[in-house]
Amino acid sequence: MTGTALLVMDVQEAIVARYPDPDYLPRLRGVIDTARGGGVPIIYVMVGFRPGAPEVSARNKVFGEAARRMVGQLNEIHPDVAPQPGDIVVTKRRVSAFTGSDLEVVLRSLEIDHVVLSGIATSGVVLSTLRQAADLDYRLTVLADCCLDNDPEVHRVLLEKVFPRQATVTTSDLFLKGAADSGGHG
């Protein structure tokens, strides 16, 4: 495997609305545009369920009853960062981008060995995906300012203490500078 892909995770309108940060979407849009312009595949990951959410057990504390209530509210990726022709959209059924999706098949098919993570929430999809991707031997980069969490302390601890054990943690500016310096390929 020889490539890099940008994962844009759980940036759906209903989720973005719960994490108010007016600078988030423009910053993420800049990363997406630069990556796309440099030939880096953009893979959008969204959470989704069938009508009635039959894939969610009532015993699941994260989704459980909330998933059944949210089925009608889960909607498309926020229009400010919407996929463009050629981008890939993957639907997951749990917190990790890998669980219940074909993400690993897509990454292998594209010969991706370096995954750049962004999304909402740091303590949810980003953490779960990072852990699973590390176990699958992907090289990992987390764009700290392209991740959001409702708990600033949890966000800080994950980015400063937990994630660096398995990933390079950087900012969008430094990532974009590196992409420019390497001709678009991180």
From TrEMBL:
Keywords: Hydrolase. CDD domains: cysteine_hydrolases. Residues 4-172 form the Isochorismatase-like domain. Pfam families: Isochorismatase. GO terms for molecular function: hydrolase activity. PANTHER family: ISOCHORISMATASE HYDROLASE (PTHR43540:SF1), PEROXYUREIDOACRYLATE/UREIDOACRYLATE AMIDOHYDROLASE-RELATED (PTHR43540). This is Cysteine hydrolase family protein. It comes from Paractinoplanes globisporus.
